[in-house]
Amino acid sequence: QMTPDLMFENYANAQLSVNGLYIAHFHERRGQQMFWPAGWSSKCQEFSNYAASSAYDLKWSSTDGQTFWHWRALFKAQNACNNAIDGITNMDASLITEEQRTLLLAEARFMRAHGYYVLLRFWGGVSLPLTPTGNPELAALPRSSAQAVFDQVEEDLKFAQQHLPVNWNGGGFPDSGRATKGSATATLIQLYVLASGDQFKNNPPVDGDASINNITGSYWIQAQTECRALIDETDPSRAKAPYLYSLIPDLAYLYSGGTNEGGDWVPVREMDDLG
Q1: How far apart are CA 215 and CA 38, in angstroms?
Q2: 170 pLDDT exceeds 80?
Q3: pLDDT tens, 97-126?
Q4: Among candidates 136, 128, 141, 79, which has minimal Cα distance to 108?
């Protein structure tokens, strides 16, 4: 029941605008199912119960409903991010402290970075609106280069990494699940690995500068640097200070599952439990 004219009249309402970004990006879930070939009634987490289809083959086109939902939901979410960033940036100093403003912007920019990171991963260069779209007739922007999308994601993530808290006070509802400094660091690692270039070396150049092949430089060193800042190399189940997170120490646990007991990861699921 929040109307646009009320959204940025005080800090509490501005915070609601940022809360909404989480559900806006959650609505990409139908598209995210494309990353889960073990889903859709396939019962084995190691993918041995394979079903032949385009979804399981990781091959999609514009005719797939998941592609449509992914594209549509992400750009709707990006516009919500731009609305929040613009509104919070322009709030009068009498309505919000600079500390509050910076924290809300860090959350909003993390969510915008998340959306453009996923779009970059799927399509390379995409249109890159960074201001609210007030007129639908002006919504169709030219396709940006993959480099421009990468640079914007990196800039937003570094801002979020600098200004988000390591953990939110209390850690429980309503703060559980909010973006943190560790969220930004982990996403930066993913971005750098994606853009490192090695996995694209033998790909033919397509789509001009919108091709992800055309992101300049190799980012393995940056990915390693961020990993070393986050993960305790002597004990990969722990994060380094100041992060203080409990980490999954082995990739296999993503499939066998487990529980976090006092900071220790204990695998407990049965193999046919999708968790």
Answers
A1: 31
A2: no
A3: 999 999 999 999 999 999 999 899 888 899
A4: 79
Tokens of 234: 């002597």
Side chain identity, residue 165: P
In angstroms, rounded to a whole number, what is the distance separating the alpha carbons of residues 146 and 153?
A: 11
Q: Which residues contact 270 (CB under 8 A, 6 or more apart)?
A: none
Most confident of 10-24, 63-77, 199-213: 10-24
pLDDT band at 223 (very low <50, low <70, confident <90, very high): very high
3-state class (DSSP) for residue 205: coil
Q: Amino acid letter at 154?
A: E
Distances (CA, A) of 234 to 182, 237, 249: 19, 9, 11
Q: Tell which residue, 205, 85, 96, 229, has the closest CA to residue 146.
A: 205
| Nearest Cα residue to 133 out of 76, 90, 89 | 76
121: tokens are: 């991963």
Which of helix, strand or coil describes residue 178? coil
Q: Which two tokens stand for residue 193?
A: 């690995």
pTM of the model: 0.81
CA pair distance 202, 88, nearest whole angstrom: 44
